[in-house]
Amino acid sequence: MRLPDYHRLDLSATLNFKLGGRIPCTFGASIFNTYNRTNVWYKQFDIVENSIIETNVNYLGITPNINFSIKF
């Protein structure tokens, strides 16, 4: 048995700049699963009273992220 086909779109952007003209910095933003599709990540199987229960575990929905770093 195979997992069903899935599709997702991830977007990201990064800006490199110097703080005070000297200190290198990076600012980034990204969006995971921009379409907010319900995709199966993996299947979980449990045995309950001699029967196998199959449960789909899905990826997260839209997940925004931001980051900022300073290099010393």
Features:
72 residues, 3-stranded antiparallel beta sheet, two-stranded antiparallel ribbon, 0% helix
Can you characterise this structure?
The protein has 72 residues and is an all-beta fold. The protein has one domain (11-70). Helix content is 0%, strand content 61%. The chain is built from no helices and 5 strands. It has strands at 11-19, 23-32, 40-48, 51-58, 63-70. The strands form 2 sheets. A 3-stranded antiparallel β-sheet has the order 1-2-5, with no helix packed on it. A hairpin with a 2-residue loop joins strand 3 (40-48) and strand 4 (51-58). The protein is elongated, with a radius of gyration of 20 Å. 0% of the residues are buried. The model has no long low-confidence stretch (mean pLDDT 93).
